[in-house]
Amino acid sequence: MITKYVHEAMCRAKYKILEDGSYYGLIEELPGVWAAASSLEGCREELESVVEGWLLLGLRLGYSIPPLGDVDLNAEVEMVNPR
Predict the structure, then answer these.
(1) Which residues, other chains included, contact 74 with Cβ-Cβ below 8 Å and sequence gap of 6+?
(2) 76 inside domain
(3) Which residue from 31, 33, 50 is spatially nearest to 42, judged by alpha carbons?
């Protein structure tokens, strides 16, 4: 489910070429998630890493994670008795 969320987030990424020729990427639906690098591929890789870290920290701290597409990580999980 987390992999699907990261994939959905990366599909929403927007990139810009800055004046100095470097690249800037962000995902508007995820507050504070952005990256910059000297190449587009480097920016994509860094942005994906930022999404993963942002997501894992948010889950660990119990924050509400914005649903993306049909991926909602806030759904309650029903615990099953392992008997």
Answers:
(1) 64, 65, 67
(2) no
(3) 50
One-letter amino acid of 37:
A
Residue written as token pair 């890493």: 49
> What's the pTM value of the predicted model, to 2 decimals?
0.85
Is residue 17 classed as helix, strand or coil in its secondary structure? strand
Residue 27 lies in a domain: yes
Residue in this structure with the two tokens 């890789």, named with its chain if needed: 45
Q: Specify whether the CB–CB gap between 1 and 72 falls below 8 A.
A: no
User: Would residue 66 count as lying in a domain?
Assistant: no
Q: What is the pLDDT of residues 10-69, one digit of tens each?
A: 999 999 999 999 999 999 999 999 999 999 999 999 999 999 999 999 999 999 999 999
User: How many domains, in total, are found in the chain?
Assistant: 1
Residues 6+ apart with CB under 8 A from 11: none
pLDDT of residue 40: 98
